[in-house]
């Protein structure tokens, strides 16, 4: 196997993805913004590059990182919520896109989010038009369009649901909170193991120029699900009021994956 995979963003998802790819025989270039993480990447067999994207420049030799890469996985969250200064996500991805265009990279996997559907109600599939309501969702859609509308690139967009897995579960942040809205809304979640499995399957099959949702097929209500999860962990359950819309249920309809890949780690 001679494919070299580039993973931009070796964080909660990117690092175990890179390790799994190496275990499957791929060579992997990986990026981080911290010296400590660079050492970890090197220890785990990943060729490390300290690269940080800003809205004005890329502070390292991105050309060296992209050299000989067959597939580039872009796994950089927008980080446009919370306090503190925020940089334009679309500006960052535009700079990265320009660097990609100067390289020999043709195959792109872009990690997006079901946030692009915004407050759409009812059943949502890959054919549902995006309707983002948050700034993150709006900029994700712009980045998706930038990449998939470039006919010189083969881009697959994965719209992940809420991510859960080791040391990451929404209930820990919701625990004990009161008067939360949307208790009757369905959850749209996916486990880390499945995120990795989906990306690897795309690489193995050279499946590009597609858009797919990645969400576990069971959708209990938020009130039901997070109450159960809090009880399992012995922490105070979040309290929901009875108001709010039912919101969206995101379906994972990709025929490519449903027919060829039996994954799905239970969200319970």
Structure description:
This protein has 268 residues and is of the alpha/beta class. It has a single domain (4-167, 189-218, 248-260), classed as Rossmann fold (3-Layer(aba) Sandwich). The protein has helices at residues 14-23, 35-43, 62-66, 89-101, 135-148, 171-174, 192-205, 222-233, 255-260; strands spanning 4-8, 27-32, 47-50, 71-74, 107-113, 122-124, 154-160, 162-164, 189-191, 210-214, 248-250. Strand 4 (71-74), helix 4 and strand 5 (107-113) form a beta-alpha-beta unit. Helix 1 (14-23) crosses helix 7 (192-205). 37% of the residues are buried. The model has no long low-confidence stretch (mean pLDDT 90).
Helix content: 25-40%
Percent of sequence in beta strands: 15-25%
CATH class descriptor name: Alpha Beta
CATH homologous superfamily identity: NAD(P)-binding Rossmann-like Domain
Oligomer: single chain
Largest sheet: 7 strands, parallel
> Counting H and I runs of at least 4 residues, what is the number of helices?
9
The overall average pLDDT, rounded, is 90
Contiguous low-pLDDT stretches (5 residues minimum) are: none
Give the strand order, joined by hyphens, for the main sheet. Answer: 3-2-1-4-5-7-10
Shape: globular
Which structural category do the helix and sheet elements fall into? alpha/beta
Topology pattern, helix = H, strand = E: EHEHEHEHEEHEEHEHEHEH
Q: What does the radius of gyration come to?
A: 19 Å
- Gap between N and C termini, in Å? 36 Å
DSSP strand count: 11
Write the CATH architecture name: 3-Layer(aba) Sandwich
Number of domains: 1
Enter the CATH topology name: Rossmann fold
